[in-house]
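input
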Amino acid sequence: MIQNSDTSTAIPVVAVAPTSLKTYRYIRKPGPEETFSDEYLNQVLSTNPDLQQIFLVGCSNISSLSLAELAKRDMHVIDLSGCNQFSTDSEKFVDFLRGISSSIRNLYLRRCDFLTNRMVEVLLQNSYTIQTLDISFCTNVDFAMFLEFLVEHCSSTRKDSQNALTIMFLLKEDYEENSVLVEPLPDILSKLKFLKEKKIIVVMNHFVETTSASDATGAGAGCAQYIESSAF
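output
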């Protein structure tokens, strides 16, 4: 099922909308089988030429073929959270990210375990329109490397952008053994502050050895806490 967010009513995905809609939201039917496929996605695209936002959370049957068609559209919002049918070496998904980079404003890839640093870097190197990027719980994205990339590359490419870029980077709750920061917390905070000045706001959740994000030298039991550059 697809939800027309303009009217908040659910319509069958195979139905032809009487007018071209700007937003489609997939609603999975109860049951063990996933019914949304490349065929349905292509029909959504072909019957709605004005489509700008699409939410396909957990759609495990769509492939890189339909994503290639999606990349040809001037999409502003795409949500592929939980779509883990792609691989870490998928060049076609990299091509998809390049394809949407000229128009995308909000991209949600929450819990996409296949996502890698290279994929995210390709997107950010090519997109000057993106305002929100959610890569929360993407276990194959290394935070330290990603933060360094933002400091070295994106701070210069986005200096003329009219809009700030907000990036959500949250770690899986059960990854505590790998969650100790590889850099001293003051260095992390310094980089986040620098990025904020360049209109890049990073929101992260990590296991740190302090009682608060503002107390970089405090001693206390490690606790998961939010650190964001917007706090400076």
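quick obs: Strands lie at 2-4, 9-11, 23-26, 53-55, 77-79, 106-108, 132-134, 165-170, 200-208, 223-228.
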